[in-house]
Recover the amino acids of this structure.
């Protein structure tokens, strides 16, 4: 689509049908189909498809990948945050992206300059993920899920307050809080916030089964129990993925207050789409201002955008005099934030 | 001075409450916090309307105006605004998200009221834009969100006028019946709220020439559904015209449509006929194209619609007449709380004293007899039947079970136009191709596209309307605000990935415009699903 974007990826990356490819390391980055070797920035399903021959990533990401794909029998290479891998005259370092536990940005460097691939990232702190790091790089490949100025999230503390208020009001009125949150990352984050405030939680199996891997990384969730051991009783909050909002598990709770935690909660329409009541834009992605801040801190000569509002964000950067283009790629917008 | 923020915060809370009682309680709290002088406007705003229902004023600001004002206030260019609107799914909401989350002193309820009234009076786009700029500059995100939603007509917070009536009753400890009656007679939820607060509900009296809500019928699909209750129902043909209330005193006549618009000037022939009758009254009935002693098709009547004043030649060509089926007031005395039977008697007396066409009343003792009446009604060119409980009151503005309607199983869909584009060949240069939608669970979903079955003249007239409703242009296609309701017929219905509804119509044809049909009452996706299930894709007759 934009042929002139290709040269600026070189020499670190090139685009191939399955996704971005790092020739020095003979590895794809978050490819969309099985490949011989994949570097996984994090373990969300849209970045970590099953069936790769070999996977590279942080210990946490690899553990999630194995947990979610128990049949998979490939090999792995753990790369810890800050550790450098050298090949073909190039270096690769993983930096925290702040997205979810184990999520990494990949910094490529060589005599020909450096390239930072953000993967999914957020700059705000959270209870279950390491804070994001930044590094200077001459080229920035940035995810732009929320690359429009309508996506500016309120301060983190305010959002946490809103979650607690919604739950407490629900309890006061005899309703069960049902928190719609993606199973890896957001669910555990919600359980941590509620647990700290003394609100016990019941987790959907998809989120619950990942807790051992969170525990290994030092993230404990006191006050959480699995849905398997029974539906929520009074004074317990249910945490379940957005995809379950119209299932009998949720609908069976007659008196409920459904709280949607996602950047997409900025849209009133998501209320009807998910049969939700309270919309709280707590996201694991950078909002528009944080995207701009990341570009500023990395200080690249050229920015390449992908995911979400890639063309729009590239256009906005260009209007600000920054050399930017969207990577060719899928146009669809994730509705479930991952 | 009440801040508009109080209204906006309440609406945001109402949207996030599931139960009707919780919504009522939250609205009631807001209403009791409003100062008297601001209560009428605040109550209207809480019900989603900028004006009293009986006011002729309407708000209108199209995409171009809102987007131009937003550019000026936010500094974002048109491309970014369009992207934002598409991401959020609503231009007004997107614009609000580009404003500051809070401002030191937002607009007051009185400011908002003044804004809507000035906007309604403004004719020039530049004037409208300036008013919007001024308002947006003073508003925070949540204020702008609901001001703009009010502007485009649709808060979507799950609270209708009845909910607000209940909230008024709860806020000021009045009975729901008294509030509903005052609301019916005033045609203004705002006036009703203030009267409730000041314990003056009884002072609100029925007034002629003041539009009243229409009683609506619940649908039935088979005669069997009412088999057990048939003896309690009177049966009439369901006419295929324009439902109207006719107010008359001396030689003054006013005709109001279902949307409570005064359509008297559009039907001078009907008004003249009615003015010749003796007495003072309010009648419910139907305006029909009329020739000799019988009604003509809606196609004919359609040509009379949407013009301020028809020229004499058209009146000559397509005369219209009023067929009365209910008498809601006589001699200044309201009859809403009289049973249908008694109202019918009054109506028949009126007809005995002057030249007034009445609907015929039938009765059916069994489902079979009802079937026979239905078939006969269809043969007379009518839509079907209406069943009216003979002991029921006139519940203005309500759809209850006291009235039932039996139409032919969805032979047509009522849909809203979402996009238009230019035709080809003979109709090149005219906006003759319409894309249309039904109401899904989460907003409108497209179900088809059809070439206009309208006359060239109608297409031209609609073209002007669509230009004013344009929200964006994508090559030859104009996206338009979903405001124009049309009726489409089709040969069959099948599942399809082509349209967002998941269905496609085979050979869709535009039957007619339905200016009498509010957008809120178009066919729902659920009805389409049921229809599909019933027809299982087989061709319809």
């Amino acid at each position: 689509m934009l042929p002139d974007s290709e040269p600026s990826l070189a020499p670190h990356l090139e685009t191939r049908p399955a996704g971005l490819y790092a020739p020095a390391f003979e590895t794809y980055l978050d490819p969309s189909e099985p490949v011989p070797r994949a570097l996984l920035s994090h373990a969300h399903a849209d970045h970590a498809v099953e069936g790769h021959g070999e996977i590279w990533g942080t210990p946490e990401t690899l553990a999630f990948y194995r947990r979610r794909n128990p049949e998979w029998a490939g090999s792995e290479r753990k790369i810890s945050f800050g550790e450098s891998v050298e090949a073909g005259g190039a270096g690769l370092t993983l930096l925290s992206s702040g997205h979810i536990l184990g999520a990494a940005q990949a910094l490529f460097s060589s005599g020909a300059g450096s390239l930072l691939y953000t993967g999914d990232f957020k700059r705000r702190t959270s209870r279950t993920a390491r804070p994001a790091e930044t590094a200077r790089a001459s080229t920035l490949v940035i995810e732009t899920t929320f690359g429009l100025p309508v996506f500016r999230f309120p301060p983190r503390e305010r959002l946490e307050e809103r979650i607690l208020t919604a739950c407490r009001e629900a309890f006061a009125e005899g309703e069960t809080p049902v928190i719609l949150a993606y199973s890896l990352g957001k669910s555990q984050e919600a359980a941590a916030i509620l647990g700290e405030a003394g609100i016990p939680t019941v987790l959907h199996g998809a989120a619950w089964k990942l807790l051992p891997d969170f525990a290994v990384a030092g993230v404990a969730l006191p006050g959480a129990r699995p849905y398997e051991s029974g539906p929520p009783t009074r004074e317990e909050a249910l945490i379940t993925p957005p995809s379950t909002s119209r299932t009998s598990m949720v609908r069976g709770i007659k008196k409920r207050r459904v709280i949607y935690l996602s950047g997409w909660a900025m849209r009133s329409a998501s209320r009807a789409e998910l049969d939700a009541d309270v919309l709280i834009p707590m996201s694991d992605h950078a909002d528009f201002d944080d995207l701009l801040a990341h570009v500023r801190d990395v200080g690249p000569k050229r920015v390449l955008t992908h995911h979400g509002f890639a063309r729009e964000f590239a256009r906005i950067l260009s209007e600000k005099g920054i050399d930017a283009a969207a990577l060719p790629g899928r146009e669809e917008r994730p509705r479930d934030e991952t | 001075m009440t801040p508009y923020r109080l209204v906006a915060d309440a609406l945001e809370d109402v949207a996030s409450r599931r139960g009707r009682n919780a919504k009522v309680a939250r609205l009631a709290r807001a209403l009791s916090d409003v100062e008297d002088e601001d209560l009428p406007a605040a109550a209207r705003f809480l019900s989603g309307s900028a004006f009293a229902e009986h006011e002729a004023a309407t708000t209108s600001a199209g995409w171009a105006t809102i987007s131009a004002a937003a550019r000026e206030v936010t500094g974002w260019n048109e491309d970014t605004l369009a992207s934002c609107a598409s991401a959020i799914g609503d231009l007004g909401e997107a614009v609000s998200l580009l404003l500051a989350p809070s401002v030191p002193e937002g607009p007051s309820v009185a400011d908002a009221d003044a804004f809507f009234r000035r906007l309604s009076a403004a004719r020039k786009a530049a004037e409208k834009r300036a008013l919007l700029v001024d308002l947006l500059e003073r508003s925070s995100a949540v204020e702008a969100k609901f001001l703009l939603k009010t502007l485009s007509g649709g808060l979507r917070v799950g609270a209708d006028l009845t909910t607000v009536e209940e909230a008024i009753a709860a806020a000021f400890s009045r009975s729901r019946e008294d509030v509903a009656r005052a609301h019916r007679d005033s045609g203004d939820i705002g006036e009703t709220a203030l009267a409730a607060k000041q314990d003056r509900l009884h002072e609100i009296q029925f007034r002629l020439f003041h539009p009243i809500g229409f009683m609506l019928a619940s649908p039935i699909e088979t005669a069997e559904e009412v088999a057990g209750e048939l003896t309690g129902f009177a049966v009439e043909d369901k006419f295929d015209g324009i439902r109207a209330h006719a107010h008359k005193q001396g030689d003054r006549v006013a005709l109001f449509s279902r949307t409570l618009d005064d359509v008297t000037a559009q039907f001078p022939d009907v008004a003249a006929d009615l003015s010749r009758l003796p007495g003072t009254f309010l009648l419910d009935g139907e305006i029909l194209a009329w020739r000799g002693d019988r009604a003509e098709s809606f196609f004919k009547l359609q040509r009379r619609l949407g013009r301020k004043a028809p020229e004499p030649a058209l009146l000559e060509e397509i005369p219209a007449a009023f067929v009365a089926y209910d008498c809601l007031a006589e001699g200044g005395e309201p009859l809403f709380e009289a049973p249908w039977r008694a109202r019918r008697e009054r109506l028949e007396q009126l007809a005995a004293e002057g030249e007034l066409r009445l609907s015929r009343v039938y009765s059916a003792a069994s489902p079979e007899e009802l079937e026979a009446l239905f078939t006969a009604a269809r043969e007379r060119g009518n839509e079907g039947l209406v069943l009216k409980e003979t002991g029921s009151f006139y519940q203005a503005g309500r759809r209850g079970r006291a009235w039932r309607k039996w139409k032919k199983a969805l032979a047509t869909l009522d849909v809203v136009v979402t996009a238009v584009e230019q035709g080809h060949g003979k109709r090149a240069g005219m906006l003759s191709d319409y894309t249309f939608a039904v109401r899904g669970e989460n907003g409108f979903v497209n179900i088809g596209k059809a070439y206009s079955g309208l006359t060239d003249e109608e297409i031209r007239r609609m073209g002007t309307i669509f230009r004013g409703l344009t929200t964006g242009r994508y090559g030859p296609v104009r996206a338009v605000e979903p405001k124009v309701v049309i009726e489409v017929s089709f040969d069959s219905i099948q599942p399809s990935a082509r349209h967002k509804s998941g269905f496609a119509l085979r050979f869709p044809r535009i039957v007619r415009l339905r200016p009498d049909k509010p957008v809120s009452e178009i066919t729902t996706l659920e009805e389409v699903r049921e229809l599909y299930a019933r027809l299982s894709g087989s061709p319809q007759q």
In short: The radius of gyration of chain B is 24 Å. The domain at 4-152 of chain B is CATH 1.10.3260.10 (DNA ligase i, domain 1). The first helix of chain B runs from residue 4 to 15.
